[in-house]
Amino acid sequence: MWNPVAPVKRMFYHLGFFARTLFGVGHFVRHYKASLKILIMQILFTFVHAMGISTLLAMAIGAAVFVIGGPLLMILNQQQLIYTLLIIIIMRELGPLLTAFIVIARSATAIATEIAGMVISHEVEAYISVGVDPIEHLAVPRFLGVTVSLMMLNIYFSLFGLAGSYLVAQMFSSTPMDLYFGSLLQHMHFQDILLSLIKSISFGAIISTVAVIQGFSVERASTEVPVAGLKAVSGAFALCIVVNVLLSALYYVVLA
Q1: Is 246 exposed, middle or buried (0-12, 13-18, 19+ CB in 10 A)?
Q2: Residue 36 to residue 157: CA distance in whole angstroms
Q3: Per-residue pLDDT tens for 136-169?
Q4: Integer Cα distance of 129 and 114 in angstroms
Q5: Helical H runs in 173-189?
Q6: Distance CA 141, CA 13 (A)
Q7: What are the DSSP calls for 41-88, one per residue?
Q8: Radius of gyration of the chain (CA)
Q9: What does DSSP assign to residue 220?
Q10: Of residues 38, 19, 215, the one with CA closest to residue 137
């Protein structure tokens, strides 16, 4: 029988875990040496190792926007709008969301299964027995690593997406580089950069928190480990999409 109280309890538990993780960030900054390697490895895996697929995807989307949108705007004699279109699609909307999807596919599964394996093998209990807080030692560096990595990956994605559209522009017209990037900067506003950064930081916090919670949620059976990974992916996907819609709606209501 479905219990209507269970989702509410789960929501408050997730919020409490998120608050506890944020509280542990301050302690991690003061006593970072023990978990610094975990933070560095998390950034290496989440950001550096994902640069290749991000470059390919960003340049492909930038090229597609220019190829599809350019001729349509030329028919309407509104060629200058291509720069606004590139900023909206690459920097403001698709950039943060697609980099979040890349991180979910790679890091959410890895974090959830890794922590779940540590729970099953009683490593977490061993940390507790010697006085080490598993949230500060395991959750916080992954939280920081994923959040910082997603923010940097989003900036990287935006740069290569705009560069990809420029390379395609050279195939159809000899647009000078200074004119192209100057027009982009002219049509780019502080609100666009701010929204992109807020989205990437929010998505990083969501992905890391959901993955860690699902990893800690396993009990004893080893068959729970892959289930934790699947739940981390599905939960992070759903929350990122919902938050993306809410932030975009808030932007158009308040800032636009």
Answers
A1: exposed
A2: 26
A3: 888 899 999 999 999 999 999 988 888 877 777 7
A4: 20
A5: 177-187
A6: 20
A7: HHHHHHTGGGHHHHHHHHHHHHHHHHHHHHHHHHHTT-TTHHHHHHII
A8: 21
A9: S
A10: 38
Q: Are 210 and 230 in contact (CB under 8 A)?
A: no
Distance CA 73, CA 81 (A): 7
Phi-psi region of 122 (alpha: psi -120 to 50; beta: other; left: phi over 0): left
Q: What is the pLDDT of residues 54-77, one digit of tens each?
A: 888 888 888 888 778 777 777 777
Q: How many whole angstroms separate alpha carbon 111 and alpha carbon 164?
A: 32
Residues in the chain: 256
| Overall pTM > 0.85 | yes
Q: What angle do CA 134, 103, 149 make, to 5 degrees?
A: 70
